[in-house]
Design goal:
Keywords: DNA-binding
Helix content: 55-70%
InterPro entries: DNA-bd_dom_put_sf (IPR009061), MerR-type_HTH_dom (IPR000551), MerR_fam (IPR047057)
Pfam family, one: MerR_1
Oligomer: single chain
Radius of gyration: 17 Å
Strand content: 5-15%
Structural class: mainly alpha
Number of helices: 6
Protein name: MerR family transcriptional regulator
Number of domains: 1
Strand order of the largest sheet: 1-3-2
Length: about 110
């Protein structure tokens, strides 16, 4: 089905596994995978680094991309960086990588 012509296509199970932005992990599972607490994940949400999707019951659900950001934040916090500063560092790193990617694309056409 073509999404623009017949309505949105429902992603298959395989598509969900491949989608790094699919909210597949509960808060408890995410905290276990990261070796951290649920409160730490909440603090990243409050700081605006990650905004988990919510299930129909209102429970937070995290994607693989969000877990990578949370793992980076945990590294910085473990090194002694305050949570708010860690979140700002990660946002700046992301902006730098995006700028470098765009710059590479612009110069690839030369």
């Amino acid at each position: 089905m073509i999404p623009d012509q017949e309505g949105p296509a429902t992603p298959s199970a395989a598509d969900k596994f491949d989608d790094e932005h699919y909210p597949a992990y509960t808060m408890g599972r995410a905290a276990d995978m990261l070796g951290t607490t649920q409160n730490f994940l909440r603090s990243l949400d409050e700081a605006g680094l990650i905004t988990p999707q919510r299930s129909a019951g209102g429970h937070r659900r995290y994607s693989r991309h969000q877990l990578r950001l949370a793992a980076r934040a945990r590294e910085l916090v473990d090194e002694g960086t305050p949570v708010d500063a860690a979140c700002r560092i990660i946002r700046l790193e992301d902006q730098l990588h995006e700028a470098q990617r765009l710059n590479s694309e612009l110069h690839a056409d030369d």
